[in-house]
Specification:
five-stranded antiparallel β-sheet; SH3 type barrels; about 375 residues; about 55% helix; alpha+beta
């Protein structure tokens, strides 16, 4: 009976003590979070309560089995299992704590610099994301290595592994050349300020917003809610447009193909009235000019400004739509049309057109025959 009750008491006591300590710690973190609204640290630390309780339970069970000498027949296997759980939960807890500290530091920085320098805030966000991923990867590798070292066979093979580390490293480097290049490109993007999370970019003719940056790939969300995933090495080897580089302010253009008789001066006044009623216009500048002509039409260009890429798109479509509607209603003659009237001849021909031999011949004008009704 003692061989059955003692394990139950030890396991039950360890689990109960773990739950009590976990509940008390979580209650303290909740009170600290309610007291300090300016920092999210305590609320983020609460996310680590599962690995924290798992670590406590594994530590208590590991110590109880060693001191109480329980289950002697399976002591070695159970001890090895608890050690692995202890290492894994400790690594999990370290990752959660590191993520909470980094996220808190970023939140404080963003709250104080979001209005003054939003581009720098996006840059820090990109760096913080990659740093968190690197820390998680390093801690994970160390934890796996520590787990493997608990097996005697792995420790015995350590010397041979170290001896062949150079050859293995060369082979792995050649085999994972593209992966390593993407990883170094990820660090270059994060700390070289080439592209940041939230930037508006144009890649391969697609316009979108950078949604996620990892060590190996980057995700761009297009205007129609599609996601384009590409390796980060693309941004270090090929040219691309970054509309958020520097200041987010932008200048947009709107083009019309109109008849030569279009009222350009009246269009300038109408453009001013349209922009005054457009919330996307930032009020910096505007303009309207004739930029090109063809035998049948002329090209009219309007310039508008806005505070970012989203607003410049809204301003352009608003100006294009309202100007066309105004022309259709007030100046329909300004719209492009196909001329079917007789061409105006050069003065001095007196109704004659030049002949191939240089003499003037009277222009033949064909008139439609009258259809008499019988």
């Amino acid at each position: 009976m003692e061989n059955i009750l003692r394990p139950l008491i030890v396991i039950g006591g360890s689990v109960l003590l773990t739950l009590v300590i976990g509940w008390a710690t979580d209650r303290l973190l909740r009170k600290a979070d309610a007291r300090h609204h300016d920092t999210p640290l305590w609320g983020l630390l609460r996310r680590g309560r599962i690995p924290y309780q798992l670590l406590l339970c594994a530590a208590l069970l590991r110590g109880s089995f060693d001191s109480a000498q329980l289950l002697q027949d399976h002591r070695f296997g159970i001890g090895r299992f608890l050690t692995l759980v202890l290492i894994g939960s400790a690594a999990w807890l370290v990752i959660r704590i590191a993520a909470a500290v980094v996220e808190t530091s970023y939140t404080r920085y963003a709250s104080s610099h979001a209005r003054r320098d939003p581009a720098r805030v996006r840059r820090v966000r990109t760096q913080v994301t990659l740093i968190t991923r690197v820390v998680a990867a390093v801690v994970g590798v160390v934890a796996v290595a520590a787990m493997l070292l608990t097996f005697p066979a792995m420790r015995a093979a350590g010397a041979s592994l170290l001896a062949s580390a150079g050859i293995i490293g060369i082979v792995a480097g050649v085999a994972a050349q593209s992966t390593l290049s993407n990883m170094f490109a990820g660090f270059q993007i994060a700390f070289g300020d080439m592209v940041r999370i939230g930037d508006t970019v144009v890649v391969d003719g697609e316009w979108g917003t950078v949604e996620e940056i990892t060590l190996t790939y980057l995700t761009v969300r297009t205007w129609d809610e599609r996601r384009i995933t590409m390796p980060v090495s693309y941004f270090t080897s090929k040219p691309f447009e970054n509309w958020s580089r520097g200041t987010p302010q932008m200048t947009g253009t709107v083009y019309w193909q109109l008849d030569h008789s279009a009222p350009v001066e009246a269009m300038r006044e109408k453009l001013r009235d349209i922009l005054r009623q457009c919330p996307a216009w930032d009020g910096r500048t505007y303009g309207l000019d004739v930029t090109d002509t063809t035998p049948n039409t002329m090209e009219v260009r309007a310039l508008v400004t806005a505070k970012d890429a989203d607003d410049i798109w809204s301003a352009r479509v608003t100006v294009r739509e309202q100007m066309i509607g105004w022309l259709v209603k007030e100046h329909p003659y300004a719209l492009p049309r196909v001329n079917t009237a007789d061409a105006v001849l050069r003065p001095g021909l007196n109704g004659r057109r030049p002949s191939p031999d240089g003499s003037s011949a009277r222009r033949a004008v064909e008139t439609p025959s009258r259809v008499e009704r019988g």
